Each structure stands twice: as structure tokens, then as C-alpha cells.
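Re: weekly structure request thread

Next one in the queue (420 aa):
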Amino acid sequence: MKRKLFVSILTTVMALCVSSGAQADGGGVYHNPVIKWSLPDPTVIKADNGYFYLYATEDTHNVPIYRSKDLVTWRYAGTAFTDATRPMDFVPRGGIWAPDINYINGQYVLYYSKSEWGKTWECGIGVAVSDRPNGGFHDAHKLFISSEVGIENCIDPFFISDESGNYLFWGSFHDIYGVQLTDDGLAIKDGAVPQKIAGGLIEATMIVKHNGYYYLIGSAGSCCEGANSTYRLVVARSKNLFGPYVDRNGKSAIGDNFSPLLNKSPEVFGPGHCSEFVTDDAGQTWVLYHGYQSNDVDAGRVVYLDKVTWGSDGWPQVQGMRPSTESEAPIFNNETGVLEKKTTGNNGYLINQCDGGYFRIDSPDDNLFAWKLYNGEGHLLMNGEARNMAVVDTSAMRTGLYIIRVSGSAGSICEKMLRH
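Done, posted below.
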């Protein structure tokens, strides 16, 4: 019984700490999906340290965060909340869905939905802040719930800053609305009233401005039915942030008219709920989104990456309107498909603490590395070898200071870790 319990716990921890399975090869080609772990509804931001940070609906408890230098190779970086800081002021038994990460006035601002499935009048949207992109979010509080504003299914927030101020858009199959926020983005501006910009065909609003137009991208269809999911990306545009938005034929988005952007393929079911667009160093546009692998539906909604081009008519497009299986990688620092570089310094490996008294070690390559765990007095407690990733179990050890040493082809690192 104890052995079965240990295996179950270790399996769960490794799942929670799983890292990306995609890499760009030496020729600058990457393979989808870029993260083979269920991370629905991705949102992404580039921090001042040069890393991209991706947040997702909490299939991993307390909102998982991954980080990457190149949008292709991702590592687990922690969670936005802990059990102590988890927002509980509304829908206390609900999940945290569809986060939206931003940087406003010198701090990271995370908008999120709280909801229980099917309770469309009890769900709502909240906000929290942090001084760093890899967690530590606090001061979480409600912005509004559906019953307070008279709008059903208030989930899927999206923030955008325009010349005239800060705005939040939201909605899920019960029309899409927007409202002006305060300068710090932490409350609705006094006197602001929600305005409808689209009908009930879509959810998961994302708006991007390009060459004088605002492009409203949403997801239509069923998101979460595995091989039966009909989720897909659609688009409309307007000269003004609050519309009127129209499809390629000039028909109104309020009347549920949108043009297709990305559909399913034989390899991917239900692609949708995209991130913000990201521009690489070559000026190319990229988007992350979730979908089901047709050959492994049970893995959940994993993360895909695709290039977005802008047609001669100004509209965004994805090649073939299908998810790619492989593609040329984004370009950063004048290198194509750059992996995190091997180094003899102390930044080749990444060590994170996971819930339950476990430490996770990530390697930037698949080569063998060695790890050792010491107590605060320098006595060796355990050691091992691994490739790609290792989970160090300290769950039976007392709280206190520990030291982890890692060495391998990517360099070496020695890090003090406080086990809570």
C-alpha cells in the first residue's frame, strides 16, 4: 500500500512539474505541440529578463506558469497562486479559468475567471498583482460577477490599453462586452458602463491592433469534448475599439458574423482560445493556442504555436487555416529556433520547488546530468542522475534550508532552497 501510494504521489508531482516536449532543431524547425501538458486558454507576456511567461487555466492547481526564451522550448516555472493566496472572495469552490497576464504601471497584473461549470450567473472576474512574472500574485479581489452586472457568463477576461485608457473585454457564448478600467487596471472606472461589441457565437476574446484596424479574435464551438470538440478561431475587425466589428463580407459581429481563422486538422481537434500575438526579432507574428492531439486526446488541451501572417487585405491568416505539425521557428537574438545555450556558468539548469515537498530540476537538453541534495550543514542526503528532468522527493524531511547541486553538459548550479 505504501509503495502504491508513493508511486501515485510521484506520478502526480511529475505531471504537475512536466516540461515542454518540443524543441527547435539545428535547422530552425520546431514541432507541435510545443507543450505536451494540458494548459488550456494560454496567455503570454515577455518580461524584462527576456523570458516569455505563459499562464493557463488551472488543470494544474493554482494556475500554472511556464517560461521560454524562444516560444518553443518551455519549462515549468511555478504557479501564480499558492493555497494561501488563492482568490476565495467569490465562487470559493470554483476553478480559476482563462487568466490574462499584463504589465501595468510597474507591476504584473493578472485577470482571471472564477467559475463552476454550468453556473453562468454566479461566475465572475477578478484581478491580482505581483512584482515578478513567475508567481507571487497577491491582493486578489473580485471585479464583478455575472449577477451584479446583469451579463450572463462573465468569464474569459482580456485587457487592452489604448490611447484613451485601459479596457477589459470578456464574455462566453452570451455576448462579448467591454468596459473602461482605472489607470492601474484594478477596478472599473467610476461611471463606466459595459458595452456590447459582439454576439453570442464566441468566447475567449483577444483584440489586437494592426495598421489602423482592431481585430477581434474569438473562439466558436465546443471547447472541451476531446475528439468531438468543434472549437475554432474566428475573426472580425473594426476601425474603433468598441466597434462596429464586421467580418470579411462586412456583416456585423453583433449578429454573430465572423470569418474563419483556424480550424481543426487530422492531427488537432478543437484548436482555440488563443494568446496575445507575439512579435519575434524578425518582425514575424506568432500565436499560442490550445488543442487536442488526435493521437492522444486524453493528454488534454495541449499548447500549439503557429505563425500569423497579414494578407494584402490586412486580415490575419494562418497557413492553410490549420495547425501546423512542424514549421520554421521564431527568430530571437538573430538566431533561428535558438535553444537555451549550453554554458559553463550557473544558468544552464533550473530548480523549482513544487507543492508537497518536492524539488524539480529542469535541463535545457536531453543529456545526462547529476544532482545531489545536502542539508544546511552540508551533509549529503541523497543523489541521483537523470535526463531532461528530475523530481527530488523531500516530502518526508523537515522544513528548513537545503542545498541542491546540479552538474552536467549544460554547466553547473548550486542553489539554496528553503523547504516550507
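The first strand starts at residue 29 and ends at 31. The two ends are 27 Å apart (CA to CA).
Next request, please.
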